[in-house]
Design goal:
Distance between the termini of chain A: 69 Å
Radius of gyration of chain A: 23 Å
InterPro entries (chains A, B, C, D): 6-PGluconate_DH-like_C_sf (IPR008927), 6DGDH_YqeC (IPR004849), 6PGD_dom2 (IPR013328), 6PGDH_C (IPR006114), 6PGDH_NADP-bd (IPR006115), 6PGdom_BS (IPR006184), NAD(P)-bd_dom_sf (IPR036291), Pgluconate_DH (IPR006183)
Organism (chains A, B, C, D): Amycolatopsis deserti
Family (chains A, B, C, D): Belongs to the 6-phosphogluconate dehydrogenase family.
Strand order of the largest sheet of chain A: 2-1-3-4-5-6-7
Oligomer: homotetramer
Helix content of chain A: 40-55%
Structural class of chain A: alpha/beta
Largest interface: A-C, 83 and 83 residues
Pfam families (chains A, B, C, D): 6PGD (PF00393), NAD_binding_2 (PF03446)
Order of helices and strands of chain A: EHEHEHEHEHEHHEHHHHHH
Protein name (chains A, B, C, D): 6-phosphogluconate dehydrogenase
Strand content of chain A: 5-15%
Chain lengths: 296, 296, 296, 296
């Protein structure tokens, strides 16, 4: 049994605390929301841990994570370990590791996949950092990851940053997978050749090449709302897809599927497109083609 | 000076009659709209022409063109010539040529580009069919095409169907060109780094790599409506883009730009996307991500 | 226990015979390859079946399937049933059903997914046709489909053609899914931030959002060849992806991911691209940019 | 007549000096290549100019431009003016302007289009910076820009950075335009329905919707090499396309055409694709589909 601090008890962190405790570990959580926090401040949380301490950071990527790491750099001591389990950009990890390294504090980055299902099923984990630190934190990883062979739900991806890099690419792939199912769904809906679209998709869950966990979730969604018409086709994106495309640019790797999936999300959030107004205007200019005027 | 029949006096045919007459040719037009027609029926039009006759067909592609050609097959005689100047699919040309060939009537297909500006500027022409028939109709082509060297506004693309094939690809390219300008316009509008977007686009008309007639038309459109916000980003497509993509499929040629331009038009006409509802539903299933419910 | 004829004992048909026999059914197979055939001719096969007969056709799509169905129309009798389990285009099904219907013979189309793994795991099935015929053939479908709830590996998609339509869309989605993983793999390989790419991908098998059967197969492939450098990046396509894109065109549905996946396959088979030669030529023309001459 | 310093006498700078001198302006050039330089050092060049001085920088974007600007900051004096005419990223301009502003030196960024043809035809110019500085440098801009109305070959796009921003988007559009023509060319070549592809493309130069300067250049290239088979389909990219796509990401603007054009260039430079090896491996795993082994 190990002891750890856990900063950030939102949707993900809260569930992870549950799973860690269920595995018998001691978790001292801290969150600004007193209703869920086990400690009154970051300093209070640290004071409740025995050295050498391990603190898992599970706060929003970017500023919040960098600030939390900087504060932990002040509060922790040589020999302690910080694990960033959030969705940080891999370029933040080098910075965070350096900040802590100056104080003799270790750093691991851990990409975490699994969403709200992770509490029950376990989380897929991708870790970056020194081998010995990874070994030291393995009881925590083992508690968080799914049952089954460790190497099927956990990987030590490489040195600092590699864990978040792997998670970033994981999410880029995820964008592509979701869009592929979505295009198929729209085609089935539009063509009306298949009479029972939800039945067909449910029937893809076993034996087919396209079976997957995402497909199982699509079946769940269709069970609740067979034409998915209770909701709007409005889709946010949360950073990793953009970063994946930036990496494709940096490494001159074509990524037509991942970019198409990202652009489809961008387009889903526009009320009207100035690009398409330009195309409409051009067609009108050369061909006298009718245009739709606003308000018509 | 030559004499010809002209079937179809819509936006394109009407202007072409003007241009042909301005060049000194004799045109007997026929249109169901009596207000613009020079004859009371197709038969009446044919009767007013001296053998060997030439009839230019300028009616909507597909059924209307095929039916007009079939009727001309009944009305015309051996040695006559039919030119289809509409936007027929190239596969229709083989059929039309055979129907007429059985009666000894010649057939040419002619792709016509230039829109409403052709009356003034001349039309870009791409012709398919036998060399001797092309030569025979050259006075007509010369009257319709722009001033300047013949080979810069006219081509004999190959045998029957090649003219419309060339026009189809021309239009596929046109889709891509328009979308490229449109994406650039949207980026300029969105980023707001450039303060005077219409001035920048106007300034691209001379000296730059992107100067083109389409750019000139975009400048015209922006002169009339600097943010193009009088109209909606709703864009029709008229067949050739789809056919071009089908040809890409048939010949296993990647056409990412032309397909992206076509899909952008499809997307511009959807109120909501079932594909994106599926993506939203999936994100909600695995991550508990918020969705927009209809009516919220 | 039921009895059926099975035409076509290639990779798929051979395995299906095994699975059907393992389930206790009587299968009379016919294949032009005598080494695997249970009968000397299609007629011989039919003669060995008791009326009302059921014949499963598992031959290449297009001409071979249409011809086999036509021959069965001659050999079978009223009340018999033909099931096309091949990869026919859904538009062929209407034709095949009519040919047989004229003789009082029933017809079902069945999309079959699962590849070489189906013999062991069962095949995902999507069926089109009349409900009573589907019920009649259910023992066969039950033997072929995977264990577990019937509705998770089998669907009655709609009337004739709907089974193959569902399978076509299934394969279109499959193209997109595969390309999404492939782009992620290429990015991981190119960036070299992740040091152990196969370990990361193996670690995605449990708990992550991207877990799927295709991912499991990618892990298998990487186990055998960790950089996949024993083989060339040359990928065929077998029709369904093209048909899916044609359906997207027909129904004006944007399909950027599926088309990108198809185009990536097209591009993988080109030695050199005339499109990119044109771009190189243009850059050279306006900018004096260096080009690679052949043989340099 | 004005006097200016010109740093960088490569392909672009050399031609611009010619054009400026032909317009009667006095140009003191500096280049590390003594054979073309009018001065022995940057300091020597500056010493030959009368205050208030104007120096045009025409060196490679990134480090070289930033360093040249920094050195000019040391050498120039309050009231002088630096114009960056290179292909700098717009984000560099803010930095460069600040460096110079600290010394009271003015700064303008000027996107320049037109390639090797600019010497003869004039260059399309897009300028960012203060209005009064733009006015002061107008004689230079007027000499460099094409004949005709100023606003058709020159724009004051906005404040510092806006000129390079406009040029970046210009080049992103250019990528899309070139790829659109290229896809059309490949389709014409592949389908072989059009017998004389160069004649068709030449015939698009007048009257058609797709006429443009790039089309004229394609005609030139085809005149020299009708099948473009003297060169390889290998295409570099020089930054602006990537930056445009990064801006699309930053502003959540879909850019499917520009990204497709960029990815086509990336793909043109790969000998083999690990992505497509992954797809081939997957197909082999599930379907037993044949793969091409290396060396086969």
């Amino acid at each position: 049994m190990v002891q750890l601090g856990l900063v950030g008890l939102g949707r993900m962190g809260f569930n992870m605390r549950e799973r860690l405790r269920a595995a018998g570990h001691e978790v001292v959580g801290y969150d600004r929301n007193e209703a869920v926090s086990d400690s009154t401040s970051l300093a209070d949380m640290v004071s409740k841990l025995d050295a050498p301490r391990t603190v898992w950071v599970m706060v929003p990527a970017g500023g919040p994570t960098r600030e939390t790491v900087a504060q932990l750099g002040e509060l922790l001591a040589e020999g302690d370990l910080v694990i960033d389990g959030g969705n940080s950009r891999f370029t933040d990890d080098t910075h965070n590791a350096e900040v802590l390294s100056a104080k003799g504090i270790g750093y691991l980055d851990c990409g975490v996949s699994g969403g709200v299902w992770g509490k029950e099923n376990g989380y897929g984990l991708m870790v970056g950092g020194d081998k010995e630190l990874v070994e030291r934190a393995m009881p925590i990883f083992d508690a968080l990851r799914p049952d089954g062979p460790r190497e099927e739900g956990f990987s030590h991806a490489g040195s600092v940053g590699a864990g978040h890099y792997a998670k970033m690419i994981h999410n880029g792939i995820e964008y592509g997978l979701m869009q592929a199912y979505a295009e198929g769904f729209e085609l089935l809906e539009a063509a009306k050749v298949v009479e029972d679209v939800p039945a067909v998709i449910k029937g893809w869950q076993r034996g087919t090449v396209v079976r997957s966990w995402l497909l199982d979730l699509l079946v769940r969604a269709l069970d609740e709302d067979p034409e998915l018409d209770d909701l709007e086709g409005y889709v946010e994106d949360s950073g990793e897809g953009r970063w994946t495309l930036e990496e494709a640019i940096n490494h001159a790797v074509p990524a037509p599927v991942i970019s198409a999936a990202l652009f489809a999300r961008f387009a889903s959030r526009r009320k009207d497109s100035s690009a398409m107004r330009a195309v409409a205007a051009l067609r009108n200019q050369f061909g006298g083609h009718a245009v739709k005027k606003v308000g018509e």
